[in-house]
Task: inverse folding
């Protein structure tokens, strides 16, 4: 999935079953390859309990979990 950073930052993220996750605040990119590794999300709900957090309490969600970018970003859950 190719997207510009400006298309993703500030968007709300939900799970594929409709649970609110939070707001995308930042992205973490591999400097060598340019691959997007993680989406940094300020949490709004309990759906983030399964993800590592940074020192500010924001969830570090692997980019591979993202499925759709429209008005909101949808992530897969297992």
Result:
């Amino acid at each position: 999935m190719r997207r510009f950073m400006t298309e993703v930052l500030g968007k709300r993220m939900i799970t594929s079953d409709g649970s609110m996750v939070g707001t995308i605040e930042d992205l973490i990119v591999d400097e060598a390859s340019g691959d997007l590794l993680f989406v940094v999300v300020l949490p709004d709900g309990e759906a983030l309990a399964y993800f590592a957090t940074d020192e500010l309490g924001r969830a570090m969600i692997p980019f591979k979990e993202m499925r759709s970018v429209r008005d909101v970003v949808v992530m897969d859950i297992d």
